[in-house]
Amino acid sequence: MKTFISIKTPFLLFATLSVVAGLKSVQAFEALPAKPPVPADNPITQAKVELGKQLYFDPRLSKDGTISCNSCHNVMAGGDDNRPNSVGVKGQHGGRSAPTVWNSAFMSVQFWDGRAKSLEDQAKGPLTNPIEMGMDSHALVIERIKKMPEYVSAFKKAFPKDSDITIDHVAKAIATYERTLITPGSAFDRHQKGDKKALSAQAVRGMGLVQSVGCTSCHSGPNFAGPMLPEGTPFFQKFPTFPGSKYDSQYKLTADGGRFEVTKNEADRGMWRVPTWRNVSVTAPYFHNGAVKTLDEAIRVMAKTQLNKDLKDDEVKDIQAFLESLTGKFPEQKMPRLPATPGEYVVAD
Amino acid sequence: MKTFISIKTPFLLFATLSVVAGLKSVQAFEALPAKPPVPADNPITQAKVELGKQLYFDPRLSKDGTISCNSCHNVMAGGDDNRPNSVGVKGQHGGRSAPTVWNSAFMSVQFWDGRAKSLEDQAKGPLTNPIEMGMDSHALVIERIKKMPEYVSAFKKAFPKDSDITIDHVAKAIATYERTLITPGSAFDRHQKGDKKALSAQAVRGMGLVQSVGCTSCHSGPNFAGPMLPEGTPFFQKFPTFPGSKYDSQYKLTADGGRFEVTKNEADRGMWRVPTWRNVSVTAPYFHNGAVKTLDEAIRVMAKTQLNKDLKDDEVKDIQAFLESLTGKFPEQKMPRLPATPGEYVVAD
Fold first, then answer.
1. What ipTM goes with this model?
2. CB neighbours of residue A320 within 10 Å
3. pLDDT tens readout for residues A32-85
4. Which of A145, B73, B125, B322 suits A118 as a labelling partner, its CA being 20 to 30 A distant?
5. Residues B132, B178, B297, B324: which is the catalytic one?
């Protein structure tokens, strides 16, 4: 089994972290690096970014030509769809809330249950998930892409040494585009880099509270989703850590087994990847099932279920102000042009 | 009843056109003007374009937050959805094929049946169409928009004299953005402006054929959709003009009554707005019901049903080459940023 980090208390966090090889120090607060980790076998090139952006926005990669990656992970917004759960082909609803694509390059595993060990792995999943993009097979995805001459040349530019159109190349291109989706420059980051006026007094109080209350035991690191770990190394947490609060039933917090649904190992029941705090204020509703509608309620629920603490209203407001300071600057992007299919079309419908 | 242009033969076309006030001459071939007509009560401003683009791309203007204008009229592609018919909220299918938004500013009426007399009028329709964006009322659209503070400021900038958020202002902003969606610079346009090398010999033969065969009786004017008429003045045509061919049943050409479905007047049965030829090669499938899959077949069907002519294969290929020369240069566009809803969300679902 793969090494992974899982903690139940701050004490255990530090005990665990101390054994992680290569981890220099535990920093609760770090500015977002300008560049994310990049796997050695998929270096970033402009041609790959451009191709990946086309694929990311192309609804023809779904069975009936209606759903693109961007449908659920909308980069014109907070990188999600602002809905409790996503809607795929034929109006089907998924059971989980779409995680944001912004800064996902800083996550060491992907999906709520960490079942993909890289962005490349993740990109392959929704294409053939019957309730998401619904393609019958990756082979059909490739067949459809090959019908579009502009894609054929774009793959040649993006993969000059081996320009065969394969699902691995599709995933590499999409992942490369996603590695450009970084939001530095939040008020918090400016504060972290020395601009002490960047944060309001309320946000500064919130910054203190997330440490003293204990939130940063898990929400640490540059993406506030745990320490930077090698790609493929998950940072899981039990949710709820303190079961039995009113929130369990109110928000059906335990209906979904999380990591258990992947491994069928009882020890993994209720284990979830720690999500990022960056841009969290623009990605309501909250949690894996999108059951919590507002950020202030999400703060209350987390304090109770993870730390067994009842926060005062003022504390909630201060923490919310701090979380709002983590909304970054979304880079300007040009729209892609989607490859044409002169005189015909590729969605069989 | 409003004046409208409806023709059955080239002879009648010219007879009818000669009585249209203000029409200087009938030109089969015109380069696309750089700017479209703009109604006096909705001048183009940058603030309005930017707001309109946000609204155009915002899926939160649909009932469940999944469908935006761009879902069916994709400006990253040919301005449509490359499907026989469109898919709205809850996976519902419409009965007609989405017309392209590109150069729609040059159309004097909107929708296949011409039921909207302006882009402004058109923009209001899909919002509350139960099988398109599915909002219960325009009032709910406005209520939702008002919950987003960045929209409130954007409306102030776009409509400084009367910045109330109304459905008319929503429609005016969207229509203004659409008036920027113009594709000059096609091979045909360059040829028209003197670059005689811009068209292949085959396309030049096709250009001759569309005149000699009779296609340009209707597909004339800068948008190849009839003469430029005052806003609100439709240019309708009977389809099929020559009923009884094998295509009627093969492609169910008469199942939809067209203009009749709006007026319930038998004289309007089978009357349709003449669609544009510009970018037609990137908007398959074809016709109001999207029943014809390829451009070559669409050419055969039109020659038979409208002119009672059976084209030879070479003639079809030449005409197709000419139609492909009408694909314009799609302007580069920046992606909009969609207004945030800090800490909460607006789609009730």
1. 0.92
2. 22
3. 999 999 999 999 999 999 999 999 999 999 999 999 999 999 999 999 999 999
4. A145
5. B132
